[in-house]
Amino acid sequence: MNRPNDPRSVGAPRRRVEGPLKVSGTAPYAYEHPAVNPAYLWPLTAPVARGEIAEIDSSEAEALPGVLLVMTHLNAPRLWLGNDASLKILQSPEIAHHGQFIGAVVAADATTARQAADLVRITITPAPFEATFHPDGTGSTVPRKVGGSPGEMTRGDLGAAEAAAVHRVDQHYAHPIHHHNPLEPHALIAQWREDRSLDPRKCRLTIWDANQGVLPSQAYLPPLFGILPNQLRIIAPYTGGGFGGKGLPLPHVVLTILAAKMLRGRPVKYAMTRRQMFATTGHRPESANHIRLTADEDGRLLGIKHEVTAPTARLKTYIDASAGSSKSFYAAPACRTLYRSQALDIAPATFMRGPGEFTGMFALETAMDELAHACGLDPIELRLRNEPETDPQSGKPFSTRNLTACYHEGAAAFGWSARNAIPGQRREGEWLIGLGMAAAVFPHVYMLPTRCRIRFKGGRYQVQLGASDIGTGAWTILPQIAADALAVPIDQIALEIGRSGLSLAMVAGGSAGTYSWGGAIIRAAERFRTKHGDTPSEGAQVVAGGGPPKGYKNYSMHAYGAHFAEARVNMVTGEVRVPRMLGAYAAGQIINPITARSQMIGGMTMGISAALFEESVLDPRFGHVVNADFAGYHIASHADIGKLDAIWIDEFDPWFGPTGAKGIGEIGIVGVPAAIGNAIFNATGIRLRDMPFTPDKLL
Ligand code: MOS
């Protein structure tokens, strides 16, 4: 057998293996899987923010030819166990938020289902509700815990920092609600088979689902439907993006399964419309961030205060840990973080790419730019002066922290030295031009051990684990890792991911997929070679787990980066363009430069989009998002994105696991709006602290 060690598979620019399948339409998304005689679902949604269903007349809808089922709380199957209140739909006449599912029509074709849904007459008794967020904290309470930290935390003596301070920045930073809008909408096909005995122990539920991993569905859905995990089969080989919005099973999954259960065997298909997605698939909650930085005359931080106020849905609490980075990023002796949340009668939020870091670093990194300006320091110099030796919050050493290399190499590659420190100096016709930068960080996330099975069959190594490819490259890079670990050419690896029945594995989330899955693959390969050697016999197999090495808890573990942006601001129209951006990252071993670069510039693209355009507008008079489509919610198009580049520092972090890789799924978005806002300040002298940076804020 040919056993190459050089060139390695890891590090090679392998193209996405499912790319040709996707562009030719042969990699099925959830909705596209073949289903025999499917039925089509259209939901009934609550038209009020709170209330109770008084009466339902479905006779006209049921009379429409082709209608198979009108399902409401009156006839829907009962749900069993589960702590997530947002999943317990159709169990009572109560309405908890605008757009909540209150029923569904299922028909032989999609058009009939939609038409019949309009014919269901629902009388609702509205109830008083609250959907007005108060950024000043009115009506808010301090939560007990946010992302593993207490709702209120103080380190050191902020009073002493205050007394000794020469420079101060005390400002408020805000951003609106953002909605995940992956290319593939949330969609599934559900089939509930029962045998003639109708014995619930013999039923079998299959979902072809769009998700970021089968594990959460395996954990949440069986208890809800009163079945065992092995009665649920999940098939999700090619998910078309998620950004966190497909991380957990959502109400539409429950709705479709309820209908499938009532139809007993007939597959039920449901693909959400964009408008429906804006109502029930979660979002990044808005937040108000109050930052107070105090520094000595040389710009060395003495204190950081970061207070976050954010709304949360009454139905299901979700709070972004936006102040997390403020605790451990800069070497400030004193720090205080506080969260306040206000319960509203609105749809639940969820994690969205860079949850916490994205919003918190917008505030912190804009404030740092303001501090640099106040101190008369270059923004990079200010950051270098505040680089900590060890984690300022925990005191732990960093596993690796090559952030200063990101600053230096990023600055050189971007041409940072051309920046004029005095705002408003560079002008071309109607356009003012400026450069800005901001730091990026994303923590190590370890949730559960990932396991992997390797089996030698038909001359190839089957590598099986419950991983997921959400369009980021798992199908492509995991064989690279496996090939090196088994010391075989990559064509001897047969990867299997994206369905239930495989090993327990981390979801494609928390920027933790590659090092969690890759770590398990390497551990399994080591075990395999120890047990079976390099000329295994047919059927030889092992199962082994990954995870970070023992002792990892003694380290402060993060991926780091620096973002550089050029902004052009039109003095006549207030329009902002970002012709170029660069990200410089220290993110551990890069497994594949093509897929890594895509992740990085994809993050930057999403960051530019949020900085300039994205804003979900919730109307507090009704409690729903009013601009719930791509006309009203603009996502950056090709014409909005200029030249993006990503570079990285050579790094290997063993504490993240044997791949040496850190996470790169989210760091590309962190700090991007701050870098752009700081560039806008450099261009114009106007400081923007409120996303998105729309023309009205610059005129
Ligand atoms: Mo990501 S927001 O951890 O799916």
Kindly, what is the distance between the CA atoms of the first and last residues, rounded to a whole number of angstroms? 69 Å
Instruction: Determine the number of helices (DSSP H or I, runs of at least 4 residues).
Output: 15
Please state the overall shape, judged from the principal axes of the Cα atoms: globular
Structural classification: alpha+beta
Average residue-wise pLDDT: 96
β-sheet strand percentage? 25-35%
The CATH class of the largest domain: Alpha Beta
In order across it, which strands form the biggest sheet? 3-5-1-14-11-12-13
Ranges with pLDDT <50 over ≥5 residues? 1-6
Proportion of helical residues:
10-25%
- Tell me how many strands there are: 28
SSE arrangement:
Layout: H1 19-23, E1 39-45, E2 51-57, H2 59-63, E3 67-72, E4 94-95, E5 101-107, H3 110-119, E6 121-126, E7 145-146, E8 149-150, E9 152-155, H4 158-164, E10 167-175, E11 187-193, E12 204-209, H5 215-225, E13 232-235, H6 251-263, E14 268-271, H7 274-280, E15 287-295, E16 301-313, H8 324-328, E17 334-344, H9 357-375, H10 379-385, H11 403-414, E18 426-428, E19 431-443, E20 451-457, E21 460-464, H12 474-486, E22 493-496, H13 513-532, E23 541-545, E24 558-570, E25 576-586, H14 593-612, E26 618-619, E27 624-625, E28 643-648, H15 672-684
Helix pairs in contact: 9-10, 9-15, 12-13, 14-15
Bound molecules: dioxothiomolybdenum(VI) ion.
